[in-house]
Amino acid sequence: MSVEQAPVQRADFDQVMVPNYAPAAFIPVRGAGSRVWDQSGRELIDFAGGIAVNVLGHAHPALVGALTEQANKLWHVSNVFTNEPALRLAKKLVDATFAERAFFCNSGAEANEAAFKLARRVAHDRFGPEKHEIIATVNSFHGRTLFTVSVGGQPKYSDGFGPKITGISHVPYNDLEALKAQISDKTCAVVIEPIQGESGVVPADLAYLKGARELCDKHNALLIFDEVQTGVGRTGSLFAYQHYGVTPDILSSAKSLGGGFPIGAMLTTEDLAKHLAVGTHGTTYGGNPLACAVASAVLDVVNTPEVLAGVKAKHERFKARLEKIGQQYGLFSQVRGVGLLIGCVLTEAWKGKAKEVFNAAEKEGLMVLQAGPDVVRFAPSLVVEDADIDEGLDRFERAAATLTKA
């Protein structure tokens, strides 16, 4: 028996929610594939993907089926017990990656928190407390907990919350010489996003990642890849480290892993994992049966030659059309990214106006993202249909035409 729901509207947000977000003026209420409908019944094409989360679009039958089946069995037992979906998911991730051990949590920040704690614990156990320094990159983003926001290289997110966690430094991204100058035998870990997502969709150079790997080996430091945004098929490989052919010691994953259901994972080797002995780290919800059942279904669909090859083909379809739009309207100077994580870099005339592009796209019935003020970001479903790509880009072109005419 369904209970009648009280009506809500966008204005309610300002009355009942903490004001740390500024959501769009409409409320999405239903999705199917790469289409979304709002309260008024207006249809939009979704190229935002819930910020690179809805890896199989909305209401994908495989995910609905997995969630429904598990919902009728077991929701939560805590980590006092294990559960079948968690073990199945861990096996799939271990079989598909360099990793031999998995730790499950609920978000990318938690996956990174676990990664950073593991790195410090390993160094502490093997070399003593002096070896605790973490090197991250300028403009990186690793989450919003105090530890992860301190590791992230964007002071606007970490300032104003009291003393920061110490022993963390930041060097320019893609600058191997800067990393070489900073790393020492006190370094316990180097943390890199293979593609910087939040700060503008900036892919790493292969030589940079290879050099970072060599420097870490030389100084007994661990190489951590934050693959929260790049993982689970986003680049056309299951994980971006496979795209580059450079293997980290620890990898964090979330976002796409659950296809919209909250889950995060930290992946590592058996040799490193043993340093998180019983009682050293934990989470109440992490690895719950609902999340793991959904994530397992996500992997079954995404980790196939058809879907991964499709990501590369769809990248080309997006890029060719976006470059054409960018040139025709003088809106952006470069289209960069890998797979279905794409950034359009705004021209000098449009610098700082990514929000205006976002708003213009929404008026045309298209959901896109920003990556900082100067880049328009696309992170659609990996199985977005070609017809939806074409129609969405038609709408984007109409937005570009309107903006540049104004």
Automatic annotation (TrEMBL):
Required cofactor names: pyridoxal 5'-phosphate
EC numbers on record: 2.6.1.11
Subcellular location: Cytoplasm
InterPro entries referenced in this protein's UniProt entry, alphabetically: Ac/SucOrn_transaminase_bac, AcOrn/SuccOrn_fam, Aminotrans_3, Aminotrans_3_PPA_site, Class-III_PLP-dep_AT, PyrdxlP-dep_Trfase, PyrdxlP-dep_Trfase_major, PyrdxlP-dep_Trfase_small
A GO term for molecular function: transaminase activity
Name of the protein in question: Acetylornithine aminotransferase
Reactions that this protein is recorded to catalyse: N(2)-acetyl-L-ornithine + 2-oxoglutarate = N-acetyl-L-glutamate 5-semialdehyde + L-glutamate
Note: May also have succinyldiaminopimelate aminotransferase activity, thus carrying out the corresponding step in lysine biosynthesis.
PANTHER family to which the protein is assigned, alphabetical: AMINOTRANSFERASE CLASS III, SUCCINYLORNITHINE TRANSAMINASE
Organismal lineage: Bacteria, Pseudomonadati, Pseudomonadota, Gammaproteobacteria, Pseudomonadales
Organism: Pseudomonas fontis
